[in-house]
Amino acid sequence: MSSLALENRMELGAAWIQAGRAVKIALAASVTALLIWQERARERARLSELDDRVLKDMGMTRGDAMRESHKAPWRP
User: Fold this and answer.
1) Which of 5, 23, 50, 64 has a 20 to 30 Å separation from 42 between CA atoms?
2) In total, how many domains does the chain have?
3) Taking a C-beta distance cutoff of 8 angstroms, is the pair 46, 55 a contact?
4) Would 74 be classed as within a structural domain?
């Protein structure tokens, strides 16, 4: 095998390694986002269950709590 062919193979291997790292980073970011969304959904469900006294202590109305609890999990 010529040195040029070997060099091309090494560059291709390095490109695959970089692509693999990019995929891992993207996958990790996706999993993190899903976990955050899951926690938001839980928190919003709990918020809708609080009584008016607790909501008032938090500075929220029942309407505020209902609007927040109906938001999509990916919306902050």
Assistant:
1) 23
2) 1
3) no
4) no
Residue 76 covered by a domain: no
Predicted confidence (pLDDT) per residue in 2-59, tens digit: 777 778 788 888 889 999 999 999 999 999 999 999 999 999 999 999 999 999 999 9
- Domain range holding 51? 3-69
User: In sequence order, what are the residues at sequence separation of 6 or more whose Cβ sits closer than 8 angstroms to the Cβ of residue 61?
Assistant: 55
* φ, ψ dihedrals at 66, nearest 5°: -65, -40
Three state DSSP letters for 3-38: HHHHHHHHHHHHHHHHHHHHHHHHHHHHHHHHHHHH
